[in-house]
Design brief:
This is Arsenite-transporting ATPase. The protein has helices spanning 19-32, 48-52, 74-88, 95-108, 114-129, 144-179, 188-208, 223-238, 259-278, 297-304, and strands at 8-13, 37-41, 61-64, 67-71, 136-140, 213-219, 245-251, 283-288. The protein is α/β, with parallel strands linked by helices. An eight-stranded mixed sheet has the order 3-4-2-5-1-6-7-8, sandwiched between helices. Helix 8 links the parallel strand 6 and strand 7 (245-251).
């Protein structure tokens, strides 16, 4: 699987198709190859702890030789995010107003999108800072819609902040010409925005670097996952994020017997064919349906052997 050579890999797909298992198997394979690997779950409904049969949570935890894992906690990250905003506005708001501003920010923690903003900030931090500590970073992402928003945010936020910077710069220029004899004014808000713009720009540069970053979608040979994956790949293409690999997971094995399974396999053939026709630009990796859940390291190793078979 060509994508395994990338240093940053995002694994996405519809809920229930086997994203976490696939991402964990990729991470395990990377670690076995001697790469110091970090497996990160951005899915609020974390599954990594269940797969590795140990508590992981919001701190980087070693789960195997060369392999660490992290389950991003939206609540913890939202608290950090709001705390960071409070730090950033110090000195920019009158002391008499600080209590009210803090109250409004605390209320904002429960608002729609707050956890997503915090998760996005954490994602950017991991991409920019953990690359120095790990050879490879594997992201186990949330179901499709959430993943698309998360991956498209560097571009959207970059444009949004660029607009804010221009307005801020214009305001500062007007202020300087009217009240400060044209001398540039210090503006901590402008500095904060500029720093964030640079971080988003750098993160987007890494996401768009095909030598650095790869995207995998996991799909089952069923109608709805196929349609959702097709739409997701088209949307990501609009942001120049190209999915070049599909893991076709839970394919009924040839040796599955019994009348029910024989009929089910015949039914499945149309969707296997549909996948080949729909995703002609993607590398297709087939993984069979296992007779058991994947819940330990040996099973992950067995699962990952199919990545080399195509």
């Amino acid at each position: 699987m060509e994508v395994l050579k990338k240093n940053i890999i995002f694994v996405g797909g519809k809920g229930g198709v086997g994203k976490s298992t696939s991402a964990s198997a990729i991470a395990m394979k990377s670690a076995q190859a001697g790469h110091k690997t970090l497996l990160v779950s951005t899915d609020p409904a974390h599954n990594l702890g269940h797969i590795f049969s140990q508590t992981i949570g919001g701190k980087t935890t070693e789960v195997s030789i060369n392999l660490s894992a992290l389950e991003i906690d939206p609540d913890i990250e939202t608290d950090k995010y709001i705390k960071g905003v409070k730090e950033n506005i110090k000195g920019t708001v009158q002391t008499s107003m600080m209590e009210e501003v803090h109250r409004q920010l605390d209320t904002a923690k429960a608002s729609p999108g707050a956890d997503e903003a915090a998760l996005f900030d954490k994602l950017i931090t991991i991409i920019l800072e953990e690359r120095d500590n790990f050879d490879k970073i594997i992201f186990d992402t949330a179901p499709t819609g959430h993943t698309i928003r998360l991956l498209s945010l560097p571009e959207l936020m970059g444009v949004w902040i660029e607009g804010l910077l221009k307005k801020r710069q214009k305001t500062n220029e007007n202020y300087a010409s009217l009240l400060n004899d044209g001398e540039p004014v210090e503006d901590p808000i402008y500095d904060v925005l500029r720093t964030r713009q640079e971080r988003f720009s750098k993160a987007r540069e890494i996401l768009l670097d095909g030598k650095e970053t790869g995207f995998i979608f996991v799909v089952n040979p069923e109608r709805l996952p196929i349609l959702e994956t097709k739409k997701a790949i088209e949307l990501l293409d609009n942001y120049h994020l190209h999915v070049k690999t599909l893991i076709v997971n839970k394919v009924l094995p040839d040796n599955a017997d019994g009348d029910f399974l024989v009929r089910r396999r015949e039914h499945e053939k149309q969707y296997v064919s549909m996948i080949k026709d729909t995703f002609q630009k993607q590398e297709l990796i087939y993984v069979p349906l296992f007779s058991h859940d994947i819940t330990n390291k040996q099973q992950l190793k067995d699962f990952s052997t199919y990545y080399e078979k195509g």
